[in-house]
Write a structure and sequence with these properties.
By secondary structure, the protein is an alpha+beta fold. The chain is 53% helix and 12% strand. The chain folds into 2 domains: 152 residues, Ribonuclease III domain (Ribonuclease iii, N-terminal Endonuclease Domain, Chain A, Orthogonal Bundle); 73 residues, Double Stranded RNA Binding Domain (2-Layer Sandwich). The chain has a 3-stranded antiparallel beta sheet. Strand 2 and strand 3 form a beta hairpin. The protein is globular and about 65 Å long. It starts with 5 loop residues before the first helix and ends with a helix.
Length: 235
């Protein structure tokens, strides 16, 4: 019995999900969508260009989905929800519905950190959406995304991003906009630690550390929110 390639197996999975028949030539696009730059001589041979397209496909499909699902949400609420739904963490989570990690090509000696693997899963999922959009059945991209969100608990993504919340509250109180400054980067190259401070009107409000700048900024924003709440209560 002939063993199917990863792209062939993924094609069959997508056909079962969407009910659409993809052509054999579409497998070449799917094959490319599964290749991380670490296994390619040139970046153009990896999934990066398809990821660029798939990012737009995901944004449009998810925007349409939540626009219809939450008719009472304001533009700001929809924007924050969409940002959480298409975040790296959530895309990595969604990729597990089709066991995408089983199909990926990447250098497993170079990439061992769980955080890095999650990033690859998210990027590859976008690349797959991009590949499907270019396939003989472009509607399969939207059908796949709809499947990924079937039964999804949207409520877990309702919480506003701490940085956005801080900015909105500061603006409402006419404090100005928060700024984030990297104080220092510590640790080893493969496991860095970032220290960030958030400033309001050039005055340091809070500091925090994280394994990424984004994580450190989020923690600093949470601490700044606590300080703002305390100041507001004391008035």
């Amino acid at each position: 019995m002939e063993r199917l390639s990863k792209a062939e197996r993924l094609r069959k999975t997508i056909e079962e999900i969407t009910g659409l028949n993809l052509k054999s030539k579409d497998e070449r696009l799917l094959e490319k969508a599964l290749k991380h730059p670490s296994v390619c001589r040139e970046s153009k041979d990896s999934y990066q260009r398809l990821e660029f397209l798939g990012d737009a496909v995901f944004n449009l499909a998810v925007s349409n989905l939540i626009f219809r699902k939450f008719p009472d949400f304001s533009e700001g609420e929809l924007s924050r929800l969409k940002a959480n739904l298409v975040s790296e963490a959530n895309l990595s989570y969604l990729s597990k519905k089709i066991n995408l990690a089983d199909y990926l090509y990447f250098n497993r000696r170079q990439i061992t950190l769980q955080r890095a693997v999650k990033s690859i899963e998210a990027e590859a999922l976008e690349a797959v959406a991009g590949a499907l959009y270019l396939s003989s059945q472009p509607q399969s991209a939207v059908k796949l995304i709809e499947f990924l969100f079937k039964g999804f608990r949207f409520s877990k993504c309702f919480a506003a991003d701490p940085k956005s919340t801080l900015q909105e509250k500061l603006a409402a109180l006419k404090f100005g906009f928060p700024e984030y400054r990297l104080i220092k980067k510590m640790g080893k190259a493969h496991r860095p630690l970032f220290e960030v401070e958030v400033l309001v009107n050039d005055t340091p409000w809070a500091k925090a550390r994280g394994r990424s700048k984004k994580e450190a900024e989020t923690k600093a924003a949470l601490r700044a929110l606590k300080r703002l709440e305390k100041q507001t209560n004391e008035r």
